[in-house]
Structure formats: C-alpha cells, structure tokens
Amino acid sequence: MNFLLSDEQLALLDALRGLLQDKCDPRHVHEIFDGDGSYDAGLWQAICEMGIPAIMVPEELGGLGLKLIDLAIAAELVGEYAAPVPLFGHCAATIAVALCGSAAQRERWLPKLASGEALATLALGEGDSRWLPGEWEIAGEARLNGKKRFVPHGLEADLFIVGTASGLVLVEKGEGVAVERLDGADRTRSLDTVTFADAPAEPMPGDEASVARSIDAAAVLLAADAFGGANHCVEMSVEYAKVREQYGAPIGSFQGLKHQLSNMALAVEPGRGLYWYAAHAWDELPEKARHAAAQAKAHLTDIYLQATRDTVEAHGGIGFTWEHDTHIYMKRAMLDWAWLGQPEKHRLRAADLAGW
Amino acid sequence: MDLGFGPEFDGFRAEVKQFLAENWPPADGDYKSKENERRFVLAAIDRGYLHRAVPKRFGGSEQAPDIARAEIIREEFTKARAPSGRIPGTGKLVVPTLLEWGTEEQCAEFIARTLTGEMRWAQGFSEPNAGSDLASLRTRAELVGDEWVINGQKIWSTGADRATHMFMLVRTEPDAGKHDGISYLLVDLRQPGVTVRPLQQMTRLPEFCEVFFDDARTPAGNLVGERGKGWYVTRSTLKHERSGIGGLTWSLSMMRDLLKLARETQRNGKPAIEDPRIRTELAAIDGQLMSLTYSTYRATSHAVHDRDVGSFSTMPKLYMTDLAQRIGKLARDIVGDDFVDMSGPGKKWIERFMISLSMSIAGGTSNIQRNLIAERSLGLPRDARGGSK
Fold first, then answer.
1. Which of A61, A214, B168, B334 fits a 20 to 30 Å CA distance from A231?
2. What is B94-103+120-228's CATH topology?
3. Which ipTM value was assigned to this complex?
4. Do A295 and B273 touch (CB under 8 A)?
5. What residue spans define the domains of chain B?
6. CB–CB of A5 and B1 under 8 A?
7. Domain B243-378: homologous superfamily in CATH
8. Considering A164, A187, A206, which residue would you say is the last residue of a domain?
C-alpha cells in the first residue's frame, strides 16, 4: 500500500510542465482570454502530441491504456496554468465513448480522439440544475431534438456525447446541430448552447453503471482542475506578499496577511489527497468511487472559488483589474463550481451514497 | 498508487482476527480491567501489532514501516473494540522524543514502562508568563552534585495530577540567550518538592493542573539532549504533537458520533440527518475529513519513501482544530434546545463544543500554527519579534 505518484507519473508531469512553461505563460493566456473565445490550437496540438488525451484510451485503439489518476494529475497542471485548451470536455467525452460506446463507435472514434484529430465534448446540462442521469429530459434515439446548455467548446467540436432520457447518444456536428456561443465568464474554456433539431444520433449501448461512471470521471477531472487552480492562487498570493512592500517591509511579514495566506493554504493543500483518492477510487475501488467523486467535486470546487476570492483580496487593487491573472482563475473557478451542478447538489448525493 | 489490500494481505488480516478472537474480550469478560488491558497490550506487542516503530529492546515490536499492515491492525482492533495501546495524553510525545534524542540508558529506563502504562506523563512547558512565547520560560534547574534542583512553576499541564512523571523545559544557563539557555529534563513527580494543583476547566472537569517546584530533584542523567539545547529537543516533541495519525483516528470517531447524533435526534418531526441543511453540512464536514485522511496517507507514504511531503507537514493540527470546531457547531445545531442543559441529553456535545476550543490553544495556539504554516511552509518572512522559531 502506498499513496504516492510513480516515477512514470512524475516524469509525465515534468514533461507537461515543461510544455506549459514554454507555451502557456500568463501573457499568452491573457491574449487568448481577450480573443474571440476559441481555444489555443497550437497549445492543444502540442498537448495532444504529448499523448495527454490518449491517456485513458485503450492501447489497441491508439491510446496509452493508463488510468484516471494519470489524466487527473495532468488536468491539475492544466488548471494550474489556466491553459486555454479543450482538455476537460474532450477527455470527459473520450472516457464516455470508451466506457459506453459500441465496438464500432469505439473503433471509429477513439483513435481520432486519442490523437486529437477529432474534438469531442460532453453535452449534459439542461438548465434548472439538470446535469445528471435521471435528470435529463432531452429525448430521441435515431433523431435527437432539444437543447443542451453549457457545452464546452461546442462550436469547435466534431462529436457530441449527449445525455438523454434514455442514456447517452452520440451526435456528429453538421445536420440538425446549431451551436450558439455563450457570453462565458471563463474565456479559457468557452461554453455553448447546442440545439438539436432532428439531428441524426446514435444511441450508445453503455448501461446505467457505465454512464454513471463516465459522469464520475468528469467530476474528478473538474476537481483536479480546481486543485491545480487553487494551489496556483495560493502560490501567486504568497509570491506577491514576498515582493510587494508597504510601510517599508514586504507585506508578507505582517501577521494579518500571513494568517490569511496560511488559511488559504490550509483550505487548499489537504484537498490534494481527496482528489487523488477520488481518481484512485475510480480506478481501483469501484464501490467507493461514486461517493469519492461527488465529494471531490463538491469540496475542491468550493475551495477553489473561495481561494480565488482570497487571492483578489491578497493582491489589493491590482488584483481587481482585468490585466491581472486573478480574474482568469476566478472565472475558471466559477466554471468548475457550476458545471455538473453546484457543491450542495453533490454533497446531498454524497450523503445518499454514504447510506446516511 | 495503491490503497487496496491485495490478496497478499488476506493472510495477515486473518492472523490479526485470529489473535483478537483469542485475546479480546478477555477470558473473564472484564474489558475495563487495567490488568487485562496491560496483558492484552503486551501480547499484541509480542505479536508485532502494536508500537511497531519502537525497538524490541525498549519494549516495542520493531516492525518495518508498512502502511497496509498498520491500517489492517487499526481496522481490526477498532472492530473488536480492543485496546489500541495508545499512550494516553501527552505521554505519547515522550516515546518518539526519546527515540530521537535519548541515550540508550534513558530509552531503556523510560520507554517500556511508558508503553505498558506503568509510567504516566505530563508535559511541563507553559508557565504563567510563558505561553505562546514559550522560550521566555523562567523555571530554573541547577546542577548540584549529580542532581538537578528545580524551582519554579508550570501551568496547563494536562493530567499532571494522575501522572507519575513530567517531561519539562527548564532554564539551566541563565546567562545564555533566550533559546539557548533551556534544557529538557525528565522528572519524577512523586516527591516532596512537587505540588500539583488541578485547575477546573470551563467544562467543569479538572483536566489540567498547575505544578509547583520547590527544590524538586532529578538525577543528572535525566537530561535529554545536550544541556542548553532543550529548545531543539522540544521542536521535535511539538512536531509529534502536531502530526496526524492519532488525530485522524480521533477525528474519524468524532464523525461517527456526530452521525449517530444526527440519526437519533428529531428535528421538525424527522431525524435531523434528513434535514437538507444538516445533511449538506455533514457531507461538507466529511469532505474535509476525507481530505485530512488521504493527505495523512499521502504524508505517511512520503515519509516511508523519504520524499518531501511539502506544505501539508505543518497543517494537521490546525486542520483538525477547524474540523473539531465545525463538528462542535453542527452538533450544537442538532442538540438545539437542550444546548442549555449541562445534565441533559446534549451533555457530551456541550462539553465537546467547549473542548474543541481548547484545541485552538493547547500544543501551540491556532495563531501560532498560522505563523508556522506561513513561515515554514510558505516561506514568508519571520515575524520581527521572534515568530515561530
């Protein structure tokens, strides 16, 4: 028994960090943020070439055949750098295809999703806090009708994995699919409203448990992103407190701010163990996985949003400007918090799943 | 990463279960008897189940670090409600401190008898004028012949009225600097020069004491670490006081109790646990507890594999304090009207509501913990007046 990252996992993180340091500095993130709402295609291509979206695709279909923990630690780094890439929607959809797709669907799509040749996304939300299996009202099997909201990068996606009243269906872009970009807060991960009008759809044969498992994986990936972002916020605030001077001393030497920063770190750091555990439980401890995923999503995204608020406070006026990084992290935290349902929803689910 | 118990551990678990079936509850059924507990603990040490980090020659079972086996033992012992072998109170701090700093003779003299409960320890750190600024302590010890002669006063010493011994900080080099004049001594409290006076706490329980030293004596050989270097010995004691595992077990049991309270208390005509606000907060507390649990696993794994655990190392105490206070507040909400009745059904939780406050004071106040996190883990500048040295 051990609760450590392996040498291979640490090497993966080193490589991805190197890439992000090189191609995703804050100035660059701001440029994309202020752009037209599409993602950074060059960075995404480099991440795909490194094999990140291939992590959970089986080896025989062009993937690496690794685990959710491997993908989650990569998602943490992407969250840390606020990388403007469609990693979340694409990887969550890829996992759903791997778990719920028919043999033909898997063979057709997974190699392209692993390489990044095609972009997939997950269309779950319907408004009114309807995000989860059992809550979806949109219906249709061979032809799909209805509207999905908050779809990550729907405009650029080639493939939509859609939650319906009868399970997941697969819809390709084109006929019967209209996409409208939302005025999203988080411009590193644009969201869209997707309207299906007699769109040709293929039901995915995955059973209830496989659908649930796909959603759990998405929850863990959001939690991992949230940890990465929150941890970065702590580091950013601490670094600022070391260099910013007032009253002739670094502000980080004043106990009031020191204690605020300690409280932030104390809220954030222990969450690492929770998201690791949720990913590990998904991989190895199936009877614990659903509860852990719900807890990780609720806890980490709550913590992240609060950490970004504290970060603004720790930076003073500069932290409230558009120029600074603080608002980008806050808006990513807002997405992590709201997407798939807010923390309260997942806490109540966790209580049910714990048998309380 | 592997938190599962593979089949290779099935045999071990079966052995532990077999041992428990044969040894607990005791043959005469008296599970409250101290003698039965002592015998059980000795048998469990003999089998390698308890005090695994302590060498055999000092009364431990000297096992290689193994999180899986330790966890199986903890699970099975808890299920069987068998004695955990945990040293009560601050005594648990003495053993790791002696293992790190003590001489062979000191370890031989004190550790085994502490493990069996024969020696019970109190901590002698705080003084009336040395609280958070512990290094300003004034209790003196002078070497006279082959004995230290101690004069002064200690306070907030939990369990000193039931203790046989005290580990304490005393000033031995009055001319040295504030931190450099302090030594770490072990003292038998059962002597005429020592007066112990219990103090009643706000809970009404007399848990902690004042201890007066009036020409009290201890052999020269009971100095731990070098003379004048007691401050550095203490730092390791405090490190053990702040570390996670024992606290984790305690936090998990508080959560179990809280769930029981929420199930058994009616609120608006239904069990409180069905109230969405209570339910959400219970789950939020559980999320915090899971974070503590798996970060503790992570920290333990990192220690076993000699990897740096990072900033979490300074955090368990403050995190547990926050958790205990959050549990205390939710229990208050569930107890409701009975929260005013010190003899009513909420008695235990009223006490815990208060005791959770003592956690933010004992063993380094929460504000001192925040300094520690800021200075040691986040690398922020030291406080001009001494900070967290």
1. A214
2. Butyryl-CoA Dehydrogenase, subunit A; domain 2 (2.40.110)
3. 0.96
4. no
5. 7-80, 94-103+120-228, 243-378
6. yes
7. Butyryl-CoA Dehydrogenase, subunit A, domain 3 (1.20.140.10)
8. A206
Q: How far is C-alpha A309 from the geometric centre of its chain's CA atoms?
A: 20
For B162, counting Cβ atoms within 10 Å of its Cβ (0-12 exposed, 13-18 middle, 19+ buried), the class is middle
CA B231, B373, A280, A104 dihedral sign is negative
Asked if the Cβ–Cβ distance from A280 to B3 is below 8 Å, we say yes
Closest partner residue to A266 among B1, B315, B382, by Cβ? B315
Residues A40 and A147 in one domain: no
Chain A residue numbers with beta carbons less than 8 Å from the beta carbon of B297 are 3, 273, 277
A332, A231: one domain:
yes
Considering only alpha carbons, which residue of chain A is nearest residue B297?
A3
- Contact between residue A76 and residue A9 where contact means Cβ atoms under 8 Å apart: no
Give the HSE-up count for residue A324: Cα atoms under 13 Å, Cβ half-sphere: 19
pLDDT tens for the 356 residues of chain A, in order: 789 999 999 999 999 999 999 999 999 999 999 999 899 999 999 999 999 999 999 999 999 999 999 999 999 999 999 999 999 999 999 999 999 999 999 999 999 999 999 999 999 999 999 999 999 999 988 999 999 999 999 999 999 999 999 999 999 999 999 999 999 999 999 999 999 999 999 999 999 999 999 999 999 999 999 999 999 999 999 999 999 999 999 999 999 999 999 999 999 999 999 999 999 999 999 999 999 999 999 999 999 999 999 999 999 999 999 999 999 999 999 999 999 999 999 999 999 999 99
Count of domains forming chain A: 3
Cα separation, A269 vs B310, whole angstroms: 9
Contacts of B288 in chain A (CB under 8 A): 270, 299
Q: Which residues make Cβ contacts (< 8 Å) with residue B162, sequence separation at least 6?
A: B120
